[in-house]
Design goal:
This protein has about 140 residues and is α+β, with helices and mostly antiparallel strands. It contains four helices and five strands. Strand 4 and strand 5 form a beta hairpin.
Length: about 140
């Protein structure tokens, strides 16, 4: 049975509905991987008041949901010995991307371990007992 491949136009219609009618976002980019290759469908703008168009190279902030997937992928990469949690994050970025070097005037070295342990304002509502389950030590990444 062949998988159903949704057309670029159909995807663009869904994105436009979510942006223009449901007001779920200002802009959305979707990556599609299908049997014949890959494609990117974008709709909307970078931000309110910022008319720059979106494309497959647009950089977005990582949302809370994607942190779960990022942590699981990182744990799997550590288990396969592709990376260690003590590697600097900058080691895996393209040359033109720069990591912050200071926070509040203090020098920092962002290790992958710290990225696993990041949190957002909404995480502050979690109890300390719940938060402790999300530390790198709690992930199944032991070699």
């Amino acid at each position: 049975m062949e998988p159903t491949v949704v057309s670029t136009g159909e995807i663009r219609e869904i994105l436009a509905r979510r942006i223009d009618h449901q007001k779920q976002a200002v802009g959305i980019v979707v990556g599609v991987i299908e049997p014949n290759g890959r494609r990117v469908v974008a709709c909307g703008n970078l931000a309110n008041g910022d008319p720059r168009p979106l494309d497959g190279d647009t950089i977005f902030e990582i949302g809370s949901v994607s942190k779960v997937f990022t942590s699981l992928l990182l744990a799997d990469m550590v288990k396969r010995k592709e990376v260690t949690v003590d590697d600097p994050a900058a080691k895996y970025l393209p040359e033109h991307v720069r990591m912050p070097e200071r926070i509040s005037r203090r020098p920092i070295s962002l290790l992958l371990r710290f990225l696993l342990n990041s949190f957002t304002a909404s995480n502050r509502r979690l109890s300390s007992a719940t938060k402790s389950r999300f530390t790198p030590r709690g992930l199944p990444i032991q070699a």
